[in-house]
Every structure is written in structure tokens, then in C-alpha cells.
Amino acid sequence: MTAVTANDVLLYVPNIIGYSRVICTVASLCLMITVRESYWILAIILYLASFVGDLFDGLVARRLGQTSTYGGLLDMVTDRCSTLGLLFVLAIDYEDNVYLRLTFLLLCLLDISSHWCQMYSTSSLGKHHKSEDGNEGRHFLVRWFYKYYFFFGYLCVGAEFTYILAYAVQFTIDYWIHPILKIALWAVIPGCFLKQLVNAMQLTSACYAVAEYDAEIKNR
Questions:
Q1: Which of 37, 114, 182, 187 could form a disulfide with 203 if both were Cys (CB 3.0 to 4.6 A apart)?
Q2: Could you say which of 79, 96, 111, 214 is catalytic?
Q3: Over the stretch 129-155, which tens digit does the pLDDT of each residue have?
């Protein structure tokens, strides 16, 4: 059997999908900031393309036997940067509402800190951040989030579509679709709220797990 090289891993099919997600995300955010009123539909399409790609890279990796630590890292970084980038855009677009700007800032801080601590707390123990054994002893919401795909999907879709719809409603005020988008926005907000609750529990559970590990080391 031919030995697998680092270049082989970098060119795994799911990782190539990951690179395409990065391109779509960067292009989308650039359009949102530079030509927001002219190409907002294209910006949303590109962002959604990146989001949909996240649904397939894991499936492809398992189907082709091309799972990798690098792929998990690429996926995590892309997810976090996409969300943070969109929240940054929303903070600019809603600059007249100081409370919304503060909310977007706090969501950024919670998102990056909770996922970073989750990744660190599990990888330091040699476990995957989504695995059942990696989340053993964590808050039940965190365990549900990574164990039950429908719960995971509902919360992720709810959060991302809350941000996407909050972006889209700004450009449709004079169009018939505006009330439909506003109704859809209110419909997905509960999923976004639950996602933030999971993030908060994920942050505290991960920090406690690291503290437990420190205590174990000290007591040896």
C-alpha cells in the first residue's frame, strides 16, 4: 500500500470542498461590504453555497474514507469565520441600533470562545470535539447537540438563517417578499436562541473539563 503524504491529505475530496467553501465565504463577505446594495442576492447565494457545502464535506469524507484531523480543523475554522464575518457585516448594517450592534458583538465573542474551548478541551484529550466519548460528562444540551443530528441541524440552520434573513430584510422593504422574510426571520429566531444557549453551556462545560484535567494532573 502506498504511503499517504501530507499533500494527499491536503487534496482529499472533502478538503477540496472545504477550500471551495472558503472561496464562497470570502467572496460573499466582500460583496456584502463593498457592493452591498447591488449584489446582495449574489452575496447570499454564495454564503448559502458555503453553508450547504458544510453538509456534504463530512458525508463525502466518511464515504471515501478520507476523514482527517486537518479536515476537521478546516471545517471548524471555516464555520467560525463565516459566522463571525456575517455578524461583522450585520453590525455595520445595523449601526444605527446600538443594542443590535452590542448583540452582534456578544454573539461573536460567545461563538468563537465556546467553539475554541470545545475544540481545545477535547483535542487535548485526544478525542474529536463532536464524539460521544469526547463530550462525556458535558452539559446535556452539548451532548444532545453533537449526538442528535436533527437537533444539531435545527440549531445550526436556525442560527445561520437568522443572520442571513436579518441581512436580507434590509433590501426588500419596498418588495412583496419583505413581510414573508420577516415572518421567516421570527420563525428561525428560536433556533438561534437555543444555539446560543448551547454555546454558553459548551463554553462552561469545556472550561470545567479542562479544570478537571488540571486537577487530575495535580493529584497524580
A1: 114
A2: 79
A3: 777 787 888 889 999 999 998 999 999
